[in-house]
Amino acid sequence: MTLPPPQLSKEQLQEILSSSFGEGVPIVDEVTSDGVTVRYLVNERNARPGGTLSGPTMMMLADTAAWVAIMSRVGPELLAVTTSLTINFLRKPSISDLVAEATLDKLGRKLGVVSVRLYSSDTRDLVATSSVTYARPS
C-alpha cells in the first residue's frame, strides 16, 4: 500500500497528545516512512505483582501509537475512535520504558488499520503485538 507522506511532525503530534490528554502521555520518538515510534515512560504505578507491566499499560500504548500513526498521515483528526484492538502478550515485560512501533497497514477514507509491536526499552525484547482499527470521522 502506498501511504501519503506525513502531514505532522513528531513535535506537532506531541503537542496534540499533550494538549488533548495532559501530563504523563507517551512521547513521540519518530515519524517513520510507514508509521511512528512512541515511548511510554514507565514507573512503579504501571507495575503489577511479579515485577511486570500491567496489561492495561500495554494496551494504552498500543492504542495511542495507532492513533498517532493515523494522525501523522491525515492531520489532527481528534475524533477518530478505536473500533477494534487485539493484543497478544508474548513475554513478561520488564519495568522499563515501553516502546511501540506502529505501522500503518491500511489507511482508507473511513478506517485505518495499524500493526503495533511493543518492546521493553532496556532489553529490546518483543513483549506484545497488537492490531488496532480506527474509524475516521465522516
TrEMBL record:
SUPFAM superfamilies: Thioesterase/thiol ester dehydrase-isomerase
Pfam families given in the database record: 4HBT
UniProt keywords, alphabetically: Hydrolase
Domain Thioesterase residues, every copy: 50-125
GO molecular function: 1,4-dihydroxy-2-naphthoyl-CoA thioesterase activity
GO cellular component: cytosol
Entry-linked PANTHER family: 1,4-DIHYDROXY-2-NAPHTHOYL-COA THIOESTERASE 1 (PTHR43240), BLL4964 PROTEIN (PTHR43240:SF10)
NCBIfam families in UniProt: unchar_dom_1 (TIGR00369)
Protein name: Unannotated protein
Organism: freshwater metagenome
